[in-house]
Amino acid sequence: MNNKIIIINGPNLNLLGEREQSQYGSITFEKLKENCLQKSKELGLEVEFTQSNIEGELVSLIQKSIKKCDGIIINAAAFTHTSVAIRDALDIFKKPIIEVHISNIYKREEFRQKSLISDIVTGGVFGLGADGYILAIISMQKLLSNEN
Ligand code: DQA
User: Fold this and answer.
1) 4-144 topology per CATH
2) What percent of the chain has pLDDT over 90?
C-alpha cells in the first residue's frame, strides 16, 4: 500500500504563531502538526511530520525518504528561494511531491517570487494559510491511490 508520507518543514516554521502573523496567521507549529496528523490518519496515510533549520538536515531527510516514503509534502521556507541542494535531492525522489507555502510568495518581495523547486514538483499550494497543508494531504492521498 502506498500510504507513507513525510511532511518536511524548513527554517523558522517552528516559530509559527510567533513570527509575522500578518503573513503566516496565528496557528502554532504544534497545532499545525496536530491538524496534519489528524487529517492524514483520517485519510489512511502514515505520516512523519518534520522540521529543521539546517539545509543539510533537510537534504538528508529527503534522501532517507527515497527508500521509506511514497510522497513528500514540503515547505522548504526560505530555502525554497536559495537551495540547489534541496532541489537536487527532491529531483532524485521519483514519486509525488507537493510544495506548500502558507503565504502567497508571488505577492511578496521579489526574492521570494522565485522557487527553485516548483518546476520539479508534482504540484503546489500557496497563499491559503495553514490550510494549504491540509489541501496538500488530501491531494497526496488521491495521487497515491491514483484517484486524481
Ligand atoms: C514560506 C515563504 C518563504 O518565503 C519564507 O521564507 C518562509 C515561509 C511560506 O510558507 O509562506 O519561511 O515558505
Assistant:
1) Rossmann fold (3.40.50)
2) 93
